Amino acid sequence: MATLTVLQWGFFISGWFAWTVDAIDFFAVSLATSRLAVYFHKPIGTVTLSITLTLLFRPLGALLFGLLSDRYGRKWPLVADLLVIAAFSLGTGFSKTFSTFLAMRSLFGIAMGGIWGLAVSMSLENMPVDCRGLFSGYLQLGYPVGYLMIAAINLNPRVASTSGWRLLFYIGAGFAASAALLRLLLPESTYFVERRKRQRRRNIVFIREVGNMMKMHWALCVYGIIFMTAFNFYSHGSQDLFPTYIQKDKGLSQHDASLITIIGNCGAIAGCAIGGYLSQYLGRRLTIIVMCLFCGAMLPLWLLPDSFAGLSAGAFFVQAGVQGAYGVVPVYLAEISPVAFRAMWPGVAYQIGNMVSSASAQIESTAGEHLKDPISGLPAYGRVSAILIATAAGVLIICCFIGIESHGAPFEQGRAAFEQDGGKDVVEGDHRGGLSVRNSLELHDKAVFTHIEA
User: What's the start-to-end Cα distance of the chain, in Å?
Assistant: First the structure.
């Protein structure tokens, strides 16, 4: 951590705060689901449609803002994205009808889709190589921190009232505007400034290199989408309906559900930091496998207790396993992604995974209402969630076994998307064309194995 410069810290904190804002605004709906159902006179399964729509539209935002970032820089697309989020969050709070509420959340999803790819690319491309694993975990823990913050705000009696749900979105708009201001105060990404000096005919080259990237990496695109679909089922299965599960299945109060959510997110924060740090030594895929197995072992503790203490412990350890694996995702996707499209490609893979898993909340709520507990007769939201989490963890383990590892990829030396051959993963070092990131990794791995054998 001491190796970072002040500017590198500024880039990281700005990306981290933007990702935290994403969580604050997204989970406001999850925490207010019961109150929204009462206010709009809709069943919980219908209210969760807003979560589905938000996730459904996020790939569009990832594609739009990701391409803008890879072409025009990391600064202004992120500032614009955050301001749009603030506007739609404010509009959500002013919604009078359920139709308006759904429309706001759909438009909101487009804006939210751009945040992750832009935050990751800006933070990690300016980061020393040895710090990537640790700071990948720190970056991803912005999400549980955001969840924790909005859950803590939700404890306020005024916010917890039937009409107090509006305050959650007003506060979210304020956080988004603050994140935009912070990014506005910082300069353009150092990497992007250096690459911009090297190319003049940027528009023509950029369009051609998008095509080169798609031709070269179509199989990697398929893998990334499957990988992130499983990850998003894994994450959302443990989060979206959790407060409802605590209240409906276990019979605890809304206040207790919020407290357990906060405790669970403390576990998520610890898991992100530990997972990201371990990945620098165990490798990205092995760390994800270990964390998935740990989460699976903790599921009985998450599901079986009825007491506040037992459920709190289960939430803590399951979220530590879920987000411990997720803490590796930013650096893993950044290292395997096409070098010149580190804002667009990881963001699109991440958000298409979100889109495919967008029905997770509705699956849980609908299945839970039909699958009654045989003793109490109450909805079995928790059992359905546990099945979903375990299935997603199994798919992730399979993906990690068959996937690629690009640990330490020198993407910070790669050409930008508007440079000649930027879409072909060219790393500077040879004036006749450079060296492919994939080839450089193969040479690096060969040297490592030769050293081990010796």
Answer: 33
